[in-house]
UniProtKB/TrEMBL annotation, chain A:
Origin species: Sesamum alatum
Family: Belongs to the ORC1 family.
Region: Disordered, residue numbers: 477-569, 801-829
Name the record gives this protein: aldehyde dehydrogenase (NAD(+))
Annotated GO biological process: aldehyde metabolic process; DNA replication; regulation of DNA-templated transcription; response to abscisic acid
Keywords noted in UniProt: Activator, ATP-binding, DNA replication, DNA-binding, Magnesium, Metal-binding, NAD, Nucleotide-binding, Nucleus, Oxidoreductase, Transcription, Transcription regulation, Zinc, Zinc-finger
Reactions performed catalytically: an aldehyde + NAD(+) + H2O = a carboxylate + NADH + 2 H(+)
A molecular-function term among this protein's GO annotations: aldehyde dehydrogenase (NAD+) activity
GO CC annotations, alphabetized: cytoplasm; nucleus
BAH domain location: 680-797
Source organism superkingdom: Eukaryota
Composition bias, Polar residues: 483-504, 525-548
Locations listed in the record: Nucleus
Enzyme Commission identifier(s): 1.2.1.3
TrEMBL record, chain B:
Signal sequence, renumbered to the chain: none
Gene Ontology molecular function, alphabetical: ATP binding; ATP hydrolysis activity; DNA replication origin binding
Residue ranges of domain Origin recognition complex subunit 4 C-terminal in the record: 216-400
UniProt protein name: Origin of replication complex subunit 4
One cellular component (GO) term of this entry: nuclear origin of replication recognition complex
Native source species: Sesamum alatum
Ranges for domain ORC1/DEAH AAA+ ATPase: 54-180
Amino acid sequence: MDSDREIGESVREVRQTFSSGKTREESWRRAQLKKLLSLLLEREDDICKALGQDLGKHHVESYRDEVGPLIKSVNYALQGLKKWMSGRKADLPLAAFPASAELVSEPLGVVLIISSWNFPFGLCLEPLIGAIAAGNAVVIKPSELSPASSSVLADLVHAYLDTTAIKIIQGGVAVGEQLLQQKWDKIFFTGSAKVGRIVMTAAANYLTPVALELGGKCPAVVDVLSSSWDQKIAMKRILSAKFGTCAGQACIAIDYILVEKKFSTTLVELLKTAILSMFGENPKANIARIINKSHFSRLRNLLIEPMVRNSIVHGGWMDEDNLFIEPTVLFDPPVNSGIMSEEIFGPLLPIITLERIEDSIEFINAMPRPLAIYAFTNNEGLKKKLSSRTSSGSIVFNDAIIQYVADSLPFGGVGESGFGRYHGKFSFEMFSHDKAIARRSFLVDFWFRYPPWNHHKLQLFKSAYVFDYQPISSPDRVIEPLTPQTSTPTTNLRRSLRLTSDSPQPTPAPSRLKNSPHSARKTLKTYQNVAPYSPTTISITPASPQPTESRKKRKPQDNQASGIEKRRVLRSDKCRNANNKGKKRVYYKKVVYDGGEFAAGDDVYVKRREDGSSDDEDPEVEECRVCFKPAGKRIMIECDDCLNGFHLTCLKPPLKEVPEGDWVCNYCEARKSGKILKFPEPPKGKKRARTAREKLLSSDLWAVRIESLWKEVDGSYWCRARWYIIPEETAVGRQPHNLRRELYRTNDFADIEMESIIRHCYVMSPKEFSKAVNDGDDVFLCEYEYDIQWHSFKRIAGIDKDEDDDEGADTDDDWNSCDESDSASEQDIEYDDESKINLLSLTSPAHPVAANSRKGRIFGLQRIGARKIPEHVRCHKQTDLEKAKATLLLATLPKSLPCRDKEMDEITTFIKGAICDEQCLGRCLYIHGVPGTGKTMSVLAVMRNLKSEVDAGNIKPYCFVEINGLKLASPENIYSVIYEGLSGHRVGWKKALHFLNERFSDENKRGKDTRPCVLLIDELDLLVTRNQSVLYNILDWPNKPNSKLIVIGIANTMDLPEKLLPRISSRMGIQRLCFGPYNYQQLQEIILSRLKGIDAFEKLAIEFASRKVAAVSGDARRALEICRRAAELADYRAKRSPLSSTDAAGKIMVGMADVESAIKEMFQAPHIQVIRSSSKLSKIFLAAMVHELYKTGMAETTFEKLAMTVSCFCSSNGEMIPGYDALLKVGCKLGECRILLCEAGTRHKLQKLQLNYPSDDVTFALKDSKEDLPWLTKYL
Amino acid sequence: MGRDNPAEQAKIILRSRISSPSFVFSFFSNSPDSNYSKLKYIISSSVTEACNNSVLLLGPRGCGKVAVLEIVLEELLKEHPDMISVIRLNGLLHCDNNCALKEIARQLCLEHQLQFSKMASYDDNSQFLLSMLRECGLAHKTIVFVLDEFDLFTQGKQRLLYSLLDAMQSITSQAVVVGVSCRLDADQLLEKRVRSRFSHRKLLFLPPSREDVQRLVEHILLLPTDSSLPNDYTAAFNAKLLKILTDEKFKGIIDTLCYSDSTVGHLLRFLFSAICHMDIKSGFLSVDNFRSALPSIQRQPKMEGLKDCSVLELYILVCMRRLEVKELELCNFNSIMKEYKSIHDAFQTSDYYARNVCLRAFEHLLERALISFEDNKGHGQSAEFRPVKLLISWHELHQGLKSHRSCPAILHKLMDREG
């Protein structure tokens, strides 16, 4: 009873220590581990002595099995502790975006460790290391069967470790039972299966998790080992794993051996000799003894069975007084005997023979699952079979026991051999709990999560639950204590950034910004006080032409009460409700609200926080950063770095006028040079007012772009907004080359109430931004779109341009076709859009949609984007040469098309005549000309001009379809493409042909689309099929009455119509337009017009290039490419040797030499150079070819003749005479390069050869090789 | 396993060096006139200046066109991570437009972790390619198309080249097309409209000059001083090697090597075989190693074939040669047999074999491609009646007989008489 109370007391104390939180501290864990380490290092002798007393282990064995591994484990734990303790990041599905999640390990609590007697230190301290590392409080119950070790252990722990948290309780079975009565958070047990059952039963009382390390009969499979080396090593390893580990009293010791019959006798002999050499005549010194009498007699009983006794082939001697058993080997004891049915746990080694070694798998599987399987074999197949078809805690090939010391491998059993795994990090994991932590923000919400339910929401759920985990982060990535925030904008982070921005931080150097859009826009801060808000009326200009609606704004106090300025994210479920009730939203194009006029496409500030108005002074006026007075009449200047405003007079020294170029305030300059210069403190009682711009850039405000505006059923005004974010809020944070006023447009939408809109701001593209002058403070720059899902950037300049163009064409249709008062239909459209957007943003990454199919609808491209905006895009200052290169790019659209005015006029009149005719008869135009004469470009330019006229209302709208014959999969495909261009649907070509026939011939019964249609077919000659039906069909349609089809065909050949069937040429060949090759003046003009304002080319160089091209082909592309290449060459030259080639002004000009080398590269065939640098034999070969050609006058010759000539040459000039085979190879190599034309090499002496280049070229090339083959010239 | 032996280790180092093109060709990368720096400039300027380019790499096989390109690409991928996607096509595999486009789509999908569909049509794929080019252009990403065996892409209508090059005429795309070909007239194979869209940058890869060969050998064979090898061994090895390199005998060997083929690939094969001859015991390379490597690199297949012929086969060859001299129009097995018999009758040789044995020998010669059928016609006919031709010349036959170990004297006589 006394001990009972004592135990209860100890456990309470330990638990108290744990709840105090002391053990959770990393410092505590580390300190305890270090103490443990010093315990092991300093008291090694005590430990080994105790082991000697209890088990008779040799000092070395003790160190090998217990002290050594422990020292290693402690070191490993100390090393890994920090990493183990920090959490792991976990992936969350996109549907949960934005969110983050991690796993954090926390200690379980108070842990009971019950260890075994065979390794009294190892089995008790090894789990202790894990338990301490995980931050648990521990109670240890060592085995009573090894009393010396237990008491040493207790002393040591008491002396070294923190006894308030780590206790050792010694005692027998009764104490053990009492301990089990207590409440634990984990019980770790090592021992026999019988006791394991008792432990687990007791644990069930408190639902305590347990880990059991039991034993089992671990087999060793020994295959036929042929090499003597392998045999020797295998025997050594088997013996040390059987007799050398505490005399076989170890849970992972080899229990029995399985061997093939034919190898068994060899094995026995091997074992015998190995035992002798390893343990010698007196094995007592090297082998541990049996732990106690009862175990000894158990083992004796195993041996006494008669059949077993007979099977002893070695050893069998027992010394009861000293509890020692000689290493004993038994050959084929009966399988049903005691020795083969229970765990031996002693130095008895039965060998079981099998017919085939593969039978071992069945044998092992018939027994309870062991803790370990060992196999000694070189047979890979057997290894594979063993590892795949047996079950055990571990499997080791060609060795034993080593798995115990590997920290990276978990140690533990399966089935009857126990459960739970430890060692290394696994110990840590065993004694800790991985707590899941998920973080969400209030930012984005999915409206369909909440009732009321409907079918639509179910559909959305179905797609939403296809989780797709972002592959970006690997699951095991370790979170550093202070990870930079990546996804969602949080105020804290921004704050800190804002605070640190006063301290020295890397900012772009002013020189680098020289070329940025900054400088172009010189900001003069001359603010006028804007009239304060006054209660005004809302006037609304609806999208549909309706009388302007006006309404009183709600009362101010009303406003305050309801004006909780939260970022409300409303989803359309709200209006869905409204819709059900039969009420409708009304959409507007423009709303006048609170004195401001807001239209779709405007950019506005939006309030962010409830307390966002804490510094709610007049935000329109910026104050001088020095005197804290608003601008007034004095001129303020803005620093290009920190964006603060300064009065000219407040500066030191004061400025008289606004300087040209960039200007950086002296505070920023000081910061850059490493000094800290503080801004003056504001006068007391006056807080520094911050403008909306400043608030936005410090994320106290948000900016959005209004996409659409509407009035809710309840009369409130809402808009759909697209967020802008500042660089700090992106995944990469602010990059050094981000501009101060830069914003990113996101692909994130939200519905917000108009109430939260503050006022306009202006977000512009870089071009507009550079032009914007004195537009006030609320000007921002936006060049990129930011994808909040993929954290990637994409330029928007190009996209926007295209979109605008499309809109230009489409809006007209909408105006004509849509019933204006039908707001319901418009609403539906909106719904569609919305759900589509949601679906896209949600499900498209989740759904496995192939990106390259889906009938031309490309999916998944949104995930392409730059992870970062590349620095060179921003910080690179273009030199004149680079500018020249850029404008000379073929891709760059020139502002004007010089030299093609006449042709363009002709095309324009043709199209106009065809379209504007009341009758609109179909027409056909054939344009021909060599490549690169601007055929397509001219037509497209004409179409652009016409479109602007359509927009201006001068001409009736028409539709335009552009097709390139070479990009069609087959000529027939053109029908589908035309039909898609006209109707937007994709159908098969046969169906498309049917529809088109209907449309163009059928008097337009459907009356749907009566616009004329212009069809531009590039590379028309590719449409020629065998029976020419495609061309015929297409060219026949225009002739049908009311077809309103105009076909413009473009091809290179002049006589294409003549090559075709007469019925086609009669339809096509009537109107033709020829684009002649450019002459040199025209080419020169084209180049010069592109290079206007860039001083990089010498005039003569351009003339040279254009003359050369005009003489060859008159291809403008060629001319431009030559100039670009020349510029590249000059640039290359300049970059390689920056000093040599600059002229006086330090500028590089593209000169004649560059153009000449560009022309050379482009026009000159490289064969001469190749011939010159080829091998001697090839030169002789070629010379022989030329010689042969002159001799016979025949272009073609055979290899045999040539070989004779070559041998002749060689022998008469003292060269090495080549073998025919070598010569043939040379010939084939020359043929490969097409210097020769030759037949396949298998023809050998019959091979026919011919020069591919004029013999003069070859002669010219060979004449140069004087130094290596001086005699060659005389044959040429 | 002998790993500890420095000679073995040195051998491994040298062999792995020769097998890695990036090491061999890094030798050429430092000078500004090298193709390496030119190519790198072209591609990197396309990346940083967002322009399109198309380049042709021309030159004989074994001059390192692809190797240099790979070095350049690897370095650029390192310099601009995440900004370059490389699409590799080979004319031997993808000369069909449809399958080339599919392969492009597949590689693009793989690169950007998109789902790829095998079922997509030509149309879909070409549209996908265009949108990918646009999207990548907007994201400042460059796509590099590498078309190996460029000349094979020019078969047919050249749809693929046209689509690629035409796509590069738009401002949003950012791509480089690199064609690699050993045909010097590869650009002339392009159709006119395709050629007009091609930017015509050409880089010519030539075999190295004599001095370059010398330095290249040094570059490859000198052991690195910072390796795991013992320092004294490295020093001794290098000293010995330098002595060999200045040796006239060695220079002679290299000259013989370059006499027929001076490309880098040939040189590498030679060096590899020389290193395989290296004596592990002494641990150093010697001139003999190089000398013994030479014949293994310059094989004479026909001569070796002759050497292995049986006496009867030699008879047949000589008979054929005699018939050839007589300028009989038709020479087939039967006429050969007649000639054979006449020789036998005239000289009473001991080597007279039955007809079917001779036929066997005849067929054997056909298999060894020492003789061949005159034409591909008449497959149905049995081999005896089809006209055949000798594929080796008198010279070769003469030499072959001389070097044959058991050639009957009568054959020599017959040949000499003719000569």
